Amino acid sequence: MGFYDSRCAVTGVSLRGTDAVAVGLMANEGGYRPVTLGITGNYNRLGSIDGIKRDPNSDAVFAYFCRRAWSGDFVMAEEYADAYGDPPRDIDSLLSYFERNVSDSSEERPAATLYGHRVFSALVARPVWNALAAGEFAPGGDSPEAWFREVFGDAREPGELYRDTLAAVARDIHALAAVNGFLGARGRGWSLPDEDEIGGQHYASEMREFLSEARTCFRDEPSVLRALDVYAEAAGELLEDD
Q1: Cβ neighbour number for residue 147 with a 10 Å cutoff
Q2: pLDDT value, residue 1
């Protein structure tokens, strides 16, 4: 498994050179739905994140999937157990299972399933995530329970995962609800990379192209444009290094 670079699930910019936020997804009718809140880390150039700091959200996600592994509801392919553990060794390893479902699995040969269904991950550039979390698409009111229902409805998995931790992860719920609201307002949903986007490395010319496309696409969204400027500063020389 060699290095490869992913693109932001919201703007399409390269994640090379920036931090990212991972959201666990499962398939639903016609698309994908979130099953976890956003988890922040360093993009690892392997389609996922590492260097994840422990907080109530990451602790809750890791503990939940370990419990489901012990009960037999979260099942991992043996071929990845040496690398990631069974149950997963840590939150980084758990997210690596999700990534393997994105890049190296099928319905017939899943990398990991929860209640018989694959769990994937989508990655959002951290500057973009932060901008949307603080922007106009943040949900109204002051109830974490209401924000939670807005994003997850009555879905079983997130309900089990966060049942006893809503107050502790209120900020994370608010952020995901804002990003979810932004996607919905633009007539979009959560998605996974196309097959031809998986496996390659991004070089400066491609990174500049993706950034230019994002600035054109979101020219009517000042907060996203500002986030793209922050991203460009973080990527720095990578955008110029031909």
Answers
A1: 25
A2: 52
CB 51 within 8 A of CB 42: yes
| Cα 104 versus chain centre, distance | 17
Q: Judging by DSSP bridges, how do beta strands 74-76 and 31-34 pair with one another?
A: unpaired
Check: CB of residue 81 under 8 Å from CB of residue 90.
Answer: no
Chain mean position to CA 199? 18
Q: Give yes or no for a contact between 40 and 52, defined as CB atoms under 8 angstroms apart.
A: yes
Whether 33 and 183 have beta carbons less than 8 Å apart is answered as no
139 CA to centre of own chain: 20
Sign of CA pseudo-dihedral 153, 175, 125, 93: negative
- Cβ-based neighbour number of residue 191 at 10 Å: 14
Q: Are strands 49-50 and 74-76 parallel, antiparallel or unpaired?
A: unpaired
| Cβ(41)–Cβ(52) below 8 Å | yes
Q: Average model confidence (pLDDT) for the chain?
A: 93
For 38-77, write each residue's pLDDT tens digit. 999 999 999 999 999 899 999 999 999 999 999 999 999 9
Domain ranges of the chain: 19-239
Asked if 41 contacts 49 with a C-beta cutoff of 8 angstroms, the reply is yes
